[in-house]
Design a protein that fits this description.
The chain is mainly alpha-helical. Helices cover 58% and strands 6% of the residues. It is rod-shaped, with a radius of gyration of 48 Å.
C-alpha cells in the first residue's frame, strides 16, 4: 500500500508515543484474555435506542498497523522523516486523541503541538488518495470498513471511562418532603414569613431523618392532621406563638388574649370599654363610696392599690336576681368565649367562688392612721397567707 512521507519533530513524537504504547499494551492484554477497561454496555445490543459498538470486531491485520506505526516512531531517523500509509496515520491520530483524553502525555508537550491533529489529517487524506490509486476503490472501502470495526473494538476495550451514576430520585424525594412540610407550616402559621417557614420546614425534615422526633416523613405524608399537629408543635418554640392560628395556639395564649374581656365580664353591667386600672382607683378616691353594683370583684390587686385612710365598710349592696345574673352570664359566654373553653371557665369561676382570697381578712387601722388589712391566721390556708402577706407588704411600702 502506498505511503506518504512526513516529518515529525521530537515534541510531536513525544505527544503521540504514550497513546501508541497504551494501544499496543491493550492489544496484548486482549490476546491473553484480559480486558481491564472493557465497556460493560457491550453485553446489551442497544442503549437509549442507539447502537453501541454494534460492529466492533477484533482484526489482527489492523492491530498490526497499530504496532507498525508504534515501531516506526520509536525508530525514527535523525532526519525526523518517516513514511506511513493511511491506516498508520489514522492509528497515530487515534493515539493522539487518546493521549489528550487520558492525559497520557505531559501538558507542556501537548501545548507545543497544537496543530498536530490537522497535520496528521492532511497527510492521511493524501495517503488515502494514493492507496485508492494503488489498490482501487473497492479494495480500499473493504479495508476501511475493517478499520472502522477494529477502531470500535479498541474504543470498547480501551477508551471506556466509568462515571458515577447520579440518581435524581433522592433529591426529588427530599424536595417533595420539604414542600409538604412547608405546606403544613403555612396552614398552621399563615401570617409568618414564608422564607422563615421554608427554612424551618427544611430543618424539621433533617431532624426527622436524624431520628430526633418520634415520627417519620411517611407518617406525616399519609396523615395531613398529624402533619399539621407536628408542625404546630415544631413551630411553637421557634416563632411567635401569636402567629399560629387559634386552633393550634396553646391555652395560655388564648386566655391571655381574652384577659381583658374576662376582667370586664366579671363585673356586672360593666361598660363595653374597660377603664384603666389607674382611672378606677382615682375614681374611687374622688367619688367616695359606690354602690355594690359598681364595686369591682375584690382581689389582691385591688387590695394592693387601696387608697390611704380608713376603708369604708358596711356599704349597702344591691344584688341582682338569680335569673338576671344567669341571663347575663349566659349571654357573656355566648358572645365572648369559645364553646370549647366553657367547661374550663366554669371551673375557674367555681374555684374563685369557693376559695375567695379575702375570706379570712378583716380591716383594722394602723397606728399611723393608714388603712391596713390584717389576716386572721387561725384556719387560713397557706395560699391565702402568702397572698395576704404580699398585699400587706405592698400597702406598707406605699
Amino acid at each position: 500500500m502506498k505511503t506518504s512521507r512526513l516529518t515529525l519533530n521530537k515534541a510531536e513524537v513525544a505527544a503521540v508515543l504514550p497513546g501508541l504504547e497504551a494501544i499496543v499494551n491493550a492489544i496484548g492484554n486482549a490476546r491473553m484474555g484480559h480486558f481491564p477497561r472493557l465497556d460493560p454496555r457491550v453485553q446489551f445490543p442497544s442503549v437509549n435506542r442507539s447502537t453501541v459498538y454494534s460492529q466492533a470486531e477484533s482484526d489482527e491485520t489492523m492491530a498490526g498497523q497499530m504496532l507498525t506505526a508504534r515501531n516506526k516512531l520509536k525508530e525514527i531517523s535523525g532526519s525526523r522523516k518517516v513514511r506511513l500509509n493511511c491506516f498508520e496515520l489514522a492509528a497515530i491520530a487515534f493515539a493522539l486523541r487518546l493521549a489528550q483524553r487520558e492525559e497520557l502525555a505531559p501538558e507542556d508537550v501537548l501545548a507545543k503541538v497544537p496543530g498536530l491533529a490537522d497535520k496528521l489529517e492532511n497527510y492521511r487524506k493524501r495517503a488515502k488518495r494514493a492507496a485508492i490509486k494503488d489498490i482501487g476503490t473497492v479494495a480500499y472501502k473493504e479495508q476501511a470498513e475493517r478499520w472502522g470495526r477494529f477502531l470500535q473494538w479498541m474504543r470498547c476495550i480501551l477508551c471506556y471511562r466509568p462515571t458515577l451514576w447520579k440518581s435524581s430520585a433522592l433529591p426529588v424525594f427530599h424536595r417533595d418532603r420539604r414542600e409538604m412540610l412547608f405546606a403544613r407550616a403555612t396552614e398552621v402559621a399563615p401570617a409568618a414569613d414564608p422564607a422563615l417557614l421554608l427554612h424551618l420546614a427544611d430543618l424539621a425534615k433533617r431532624e426527622i431523618l436524624r431520628d430526633r422526633h418520634p415520627v417519620t416523613l411517611g407518617m406525616l405524608v399519609s396523615d395531613d392532621g398529624r402533619g399539621r399537629d407536628f408542625m404546630a408543635s415544631f413551630l411553637l418554640s421557634r416563632i411567635d406563638p401569636e402567629l399560629l392560628t387559634p386552633e393550634f395556639q396553646p391555652l395560655c395564649i388564648l386566655q391571655s388574649a381574652r384577659e381583658e374581656q374576662l376582667k370586664k365580664a366579671l363585673v356586672f353591667d360593666a361598660d363595653d370599654e374597660p377603664l384603666d386600672e389607674v382611672q378606677v382607683v382615682a375614681g374611687q378616691i374622688a367619688e367616695g363610696p359606690r354602690t355594690g353594683t359598681e364595686v369591682p370583684a375584690p382581689s389582691v390587686e385591688n387590695l394592693a392599690k387601696a387608697p390611704d385612710g380608713p376603708l369604708v365598710s358596711d356599704v349597702p349592696k344591691t344584688l341582682p336576681t338569680q335569673q338576671k345574673l344567669a341571663e347575663h352570664y349566659a349571654g357573656w359566654l355566648l358572645g365572648e368565649a369559645d364553646p370549647e373553653y366553657w367547661p374550663e371557665i366554669n371551673r375557674q369561676i367555681q374555684h374563685l367562688a369557693w376559695n375567695f382570697t379575702r375570706r379570712y381578712v378583716r380591716e383594722t387601722t394602723s397606728r399611723y392612721g393608714v388603712g391596713e388589712m390584717v389576716s386572721v391566721s387561725a384556719g387560713m390556708s397557706s395560699e391565702d397567707q402568702v397572698q395576704t402577706h404580699f398585699a400587706r407588704k405592698s400597702i406598707n411600702s406605699s
